[in-house]
Known about the structure:
- With about 450 residues, the chain is α+β, with helices and mostly antiparallel strands.
- Among the domains are: about 170 residues, no CATH class; about 130 residues, Histidine kinase-like ATPase, C-terminal domain (Heat Shock Protein 90, 2-Layer Sandwich), CATH 3.30.565.
- The protein has ten helices and nine strands.
- The strands form two sheets. It has a five-stranded mixed β-sheet, with helices on one face.
- Helix 1 runs antiparallel to helix 4, helix 4 runs parallel beside helix 5 and helix 9 packs antiparallel against helix 10.
- The longest helix has about 60 residues.
Amino acid sequence: xxxxxxxxxxxxxxxxxxxxxxGATAVWQARQSVAKEVQSxxxxxxxxxxxxxxxxxxxxxxxxxxxxxISALKQARHLKILIAEEGEKPIEFVTQRRVDELRxxxxxWFVNAVTTEYLTxxxxxxxxxxxxxxxxxxxDPMDEIIEAWGESKAFxxxxxxxxxxxxxxxxxVFNSMLRTVKAILSGLHRxxxxxxxINLPHFKISEFDAIAxxxxxxxxxxxxxxxxxxxxxRHTMQIQESERRTMSKELHDEMGQSxxxxxxxxxxxxxxxxxxxxxxxxxxxxxxxLSKVVRSMMKxxxxxxxxxxxxxxxxxxxxxxxHRRYSDLDVSMDYDTNLETLSHExxxxxxxxxxxxxxxxxxHANASEVTIIVxxxxxxxxxxxxxxGVGGKASQQGFGVLAMRExxxxxxxxxxxxxxxxxxxxxxxxxxxxxxxx
Length: 438
């Protein structure tokens, strides 16, 4: 069910409930009004009859003379008057209703709903000849019921028109809301399709305007993230191509020249006048050099010691290599041995993050001290790298920092980068801990 149908259904149900409650209230009030009006008319008629006959002497109570005393009651509303002389059939005095009143007789269900049990009062009159005449006064509420029916219809129509106006007003407002919702859904669909640069307009309804502001902020963040990812992807491909060129150059310069030299030594050793010992020493020296080059290239591609010796030894080897290359940089490490069972997937990310941090320190920090802390807390791997460099220069949008952030978030971890001018840089990374099950 759509939102429009749901709201319209609830409005209709509310209207029906209001009409039922209003109708029940109107019928109850009409019932009370009819009962009070009829009872009041009966009391008034009895008082008038008693007063009239109290003023009429007994000697004048004969024939039709006394009938003039009740003639004034013939036009009374809500009453039916019957006169029964002793031994005679009762005579009914009623007022004929007008033609328009006859046409306005309300439905039977309304008559039954507002009609109660009405009493019949009687008044005995002593005649001059010693006989008695009885006057019966019976309630006839039809006039009051007709009036109540007219008032009830007016009440019903007024409620109906009021609810109709409310219904139309709600639908007009709801149509405006639906247009806004459709605009928001259209914007979300465009974001889903990858159009991250959209901006929803401002809306008059504050709640929808707040949603539009949030969607615009989300779209901007996704757009920035997309551009950052694209830039990072381009930078990664550039690094790959750069590493391939470097490896190609090293293979050409180191491996190619060394193999050429070995071949030359081998050819020279076949000559009778050559010194085999000198050729062998040269070949051994060249092979040692090739072995160092190959190990350096393999370490650049992937630290094999990580699987063989563990994360701690691999990080220690990285720090020793840093000491060898940059003797004026003091690098200290506090390593938690509980991480030796860390899975290879997480361990390689820890290694690359520490490696990237040291690379940034050497390139940008101009620092003399670096502190590395790798520990396990509450099933989480914490990596903290802090230096005492110049700070304030490295940007969080740098490719190195973006790469570390991507590594952390790819595992469901968190990345924090703090840099203040003159206070160095602190990188804190939290990664989920998982053990190596192999």
